[in-house]
User: Which sequence fits this backbone?
């Protein structure tokens, strides 16, 4: 099939099926767009690069982009998840065939809600220090422990869980990776009030919860490797998503681009303001250009280390944009509430910027990763890398 | 005499294989003839120019890279120019390449052919009132020029000085002007003041001046991106080899984290320079934003990489014999060549306003 044929096919398909969606999107939990996403999945557009066996069309990267561009041109979501869907990619790469057949189609259509059960009170940056335990029982695993900062846990059907399965080997080697069913008695979710005054993340208490055998991803005790794939996807998506401010929900909507805000504030003729606004916009553009270059250089299916620059860049953009928005608003930024959407945006952004600079691995950890994995600089000495986890100091 | 200002031929587009071969031939030539020892020799010479090196570059087609084939050039565009400049920047090539690229846009006919074959060198003074530097004071009366253009790159070795004013472009022979070489801080990029007091040949109106400046900025941005990357590579290599406290300094986070930030800077510079080149080559509608963006992003990135690179090297980089200061000098001179970064951020936001 030539590119023209492909283009014609996808255009025709969109012309028949695409009618637009209500503008609402939550990245965690069951996706309200799932009826549409299921159609995209069934047509094979969701993961065009994958094998037909897993719902794809076996297209080269170049040709898959034709599909993505056609969707983007009409504003339809759901195509090209083979580059962006963290859950589906992790499952495809590591799940057992039978579990894949069950879960992957559901993930592509957003029919199941997902969360990440990695962080614990004693294991944040140092994820290899998890103490949640998984013990072998008949037909599966019994889980006990506590997770924290778990975004979307309340609406999730499954959590991607890392838990310790061997305490007598060094910490990286005794971890396994599971899809934990969340809707069961042993899983208790308690919302945490966040600095943004929302409660998207939670504490999760796990007491004798059960994971069926087939929900183990990758080898037993080989969870660290699976986690690396999943983290790489998460980080690349975080650097790529042009996370803007929450658009003043309910309030009057102005032009909330930075340039527009400066104009509205009547300060677009101030030299310093112009310099700052230009710099933030430039960083955003540069980040997009970097991402485009990284993607062009990246073979399908593998994660590019250059992509991990994006998350670091995005942290800087978001924190600096919050500063500039606040400066533009002046004392208006002291206000909140629906009548002051511009202030809400700026204040929300000032806090929510940490979502990127702490969540998914802090900027400091990101710099370690770039230094070590991309630049090949020597690793930091880790005192607990070689001793059995049982003997590791915690706290 | 007024040369015609039509450029009928559109640039040839190379495929990726030919492009790689071109870059490779330039890289090999620079590895032979533009080692650090060569750079230092040329830098210490009176003119800061090595005619033999220039001839060699002319032979592999670098001097005529973007000139049309009818003038003996390779007929290539901004994309190839930018990539070649990345190589030149990495090697700190002291040669009038940027001036040549700009002159290629302004010239036609015989004058162009002699630039392309390397037999003559042109320098360019931007002397319009729209010029942002406020450095030049050149007046036109009929076809006579008076006044002084300041800080003109390569003027002391040029055979022809081109003057781009608000409404015309003039050519003046070297013998008809007074050239005063300046004692520059970056001796790999020589500049001179040029005083005019006589006849000049009007070679065209001002219609090509903006395009000439765009090409100059793309070339400079490429040079900065390539130089930043090389300085960065030197720094990472050093951080891997140098040991203190019983471990490589690159294993210390203070160093590792600076390196990660510098990688972001140098990759962003490369992205910006290549995007500007592509937009100029395609005549894209948003090139008036892409060119200023490259101008300040590449200048700032190179200065930061050069500066922090010295810090990360420690005392060794503070010596004359270490190449770090050569990169720092280049970074600082390039950051002023077409106006500073604040100027270009201002032009960038103006372009964004115009698009909005
Ligand atoms: C909004 C938000 C949402 C989140 N969502 C989830 C989620 O859904 N699921 C989940 O599992 N987790 C989630 N997290 C948790 C997040 O991944 C962790 O907070 C993060 O990895 C840092 O761990 P920590 O909070 O324990 O901080 P710590 O690891 O205690 O770090 C504290 C400070 O020390 C620094 N530090 C630690 N180790 C090093 C080192 N080796 N080198 C240099 N500096 C170091 C850190 O950079 C930081 O500045 C979320 C966090 C946030 C803020």
Assistant:
């Amino acid at each position: 099939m030539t590119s023209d044929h492909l283009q014609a096919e996808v255009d025709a398909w969109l012309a028949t099926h695409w009618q637009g969606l209500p503008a609402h999107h939550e990245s965690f939990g069951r996706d309200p767009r799932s009826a549409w996403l299921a159609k995209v999945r069934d047509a094979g557009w969701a993961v065009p690069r994958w094998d037909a066996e897993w719902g794809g069309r076996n297209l080269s990267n170049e040709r898959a982009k034709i599909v993505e561009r056609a969707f983007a041109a009409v504003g339809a979501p759901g195509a090209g998840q083979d580059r962006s869907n963290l859950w589906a990619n992790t499952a495809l790469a590591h799940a057992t065939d039978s579990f894949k057949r069950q879960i992957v189609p559901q993930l592509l259509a957003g029919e199941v809600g997902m969360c990440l059960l990695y962080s614990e009170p004693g294991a944040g940056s140092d994820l290899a220090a998890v103490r949640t335990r998984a013990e072998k029982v008949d037909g599966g695993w019994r889980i006990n422990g506590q997770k924290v900062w778990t975004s979307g846990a309340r609406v999730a059907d499954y959590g991607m869980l890392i838990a310790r399965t061997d305490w007598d080997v060094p910490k990286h080697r005794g971890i396994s990776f599971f899809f934990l069913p969340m809707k069961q008695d042993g899983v208790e979710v308690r919302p945490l009030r966040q600095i943004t005054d929302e409660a998207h993340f939670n504490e999760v208490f796990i007491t004798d919860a059960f994971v069926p055998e087939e929900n183990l991803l990758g080898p037993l005790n080989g969870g660290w490797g699976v986690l690396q794939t999943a983290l790489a996807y998460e980080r690349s998506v975080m650097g790529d998503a042009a996370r803007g401010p929450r658009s003043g929900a309910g309030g009057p909507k102005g032009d909330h681009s930075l340039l527009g805000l400066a104009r509205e504030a009547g300060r677009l003729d101030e030299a310093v303001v112009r310099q700052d606004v230009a710099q933030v916009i430039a960083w955003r553009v540069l980040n997009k250009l970097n991402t485009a270059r990284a993607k062009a250089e990246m073979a399908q299916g593998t994660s590019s280390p250059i992509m991990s620059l994006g998350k670091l860049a995005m942290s800087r953009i978001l924190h600096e944009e919050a500063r500039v928005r606040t400066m533009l608003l002046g004392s208006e930024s002291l206000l909140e509430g629906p009548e002051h959407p511009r202030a809400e945006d700026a204040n929300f952004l000032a806090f929510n910027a940490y979502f990127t600079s702490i969540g998914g691995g802090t900027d400091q950890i990101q710099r370690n990763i770039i230094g070590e994995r991309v630049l090949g600089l020597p690793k930091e000495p880790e005192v607990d890398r070689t001793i059995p986890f049982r003997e590791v100091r915690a706290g | 005499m007024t040369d015609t200002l039509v450029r009928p031929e559109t640039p040839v587009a190379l495929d990726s294989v030919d492009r790689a071969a071109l870059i490779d031939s330039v890289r090999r030539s620079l590895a032979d003839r533009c080692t650090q020892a060569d750079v230092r020799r040329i830098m210490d010479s009176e003119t800061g120019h090595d005619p033999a090196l220039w001839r060699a570059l002319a032979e592999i087609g670098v001097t005529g890279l973007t000139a049309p084939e009818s003038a003996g050039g390779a007929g290539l565009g901004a994309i190839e120019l930018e990539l070649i400049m990345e190589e030149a920047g990495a090697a700190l090539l002291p040669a009038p390449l940027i001036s040549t690229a700009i002159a290629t846009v302004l010239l036609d006919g015989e004058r162009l052919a002699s630039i392309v074959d390397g037999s003559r060198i042109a320098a360019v003074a931007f002397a319009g009132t729209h010029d942002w530097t406020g450095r030049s004071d050149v007046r036109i009366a009929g076809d006579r020029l008076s006044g002084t253009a300041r800080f003109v790159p390569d003027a002391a070795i040029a055979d022809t000085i081109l003057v781009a004013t608000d409404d015309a472009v003039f050519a003046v022979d070297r013998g008809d002007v007074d050239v005063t070489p300046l004692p520059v801080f970056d001796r790999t990029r020589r500049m001179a003041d040029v005083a005019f007091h006589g006849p000049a040949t009007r070679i065209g109106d001002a219609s090509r001046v903006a395009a000439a400046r765009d090409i100059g900025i793309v070339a400079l941005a490429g040079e900065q991106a390539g130089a930043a990357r090389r300085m960065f590579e030197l720094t990472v290599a050093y951080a891997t080899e140098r040991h203190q406290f019983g471990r490589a300094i690159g294993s210390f986070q203070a160093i590792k984290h600076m390196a990660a930030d510098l990688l972001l800077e140098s990759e962003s510079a490369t992205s910006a320079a290549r995007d500007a080149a592509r937009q100029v080559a395609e005549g894209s509608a948003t090139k008036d934003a892409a060119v200023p963006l490259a101008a300040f992003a590449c200048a700032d990135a190179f200065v930061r990489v050069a500066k922090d690179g010295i810090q990360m090297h420690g005392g060794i980089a503070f010596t004359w014999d270490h190449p770090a200061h050569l990169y720092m000098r280049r970074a600082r001179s390039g950051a002023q060549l077409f106006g500073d970064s604040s100027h270009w951020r201002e032009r960038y936001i103006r372009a964004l306003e115009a698009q909005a």
User: Anything to note?
Assistant: Residues 271-297 of chain A form the longest helix (27 residues). Chain A touches chain B at residues 259-260, 268, 271, 274-275, 277-279, 281-282, 285-287, 289-290, 292-293, 306, 309, 312-313, 364, 366-368, 370-372, 374-381 (CB under 8 Å). Strands of chain A lie at 114-117, 133-137, 140-151, 158-164, 175-181, 187-191, 201-212, 216-217. The two ends of chain A are 59 Å apart (CA to CA).
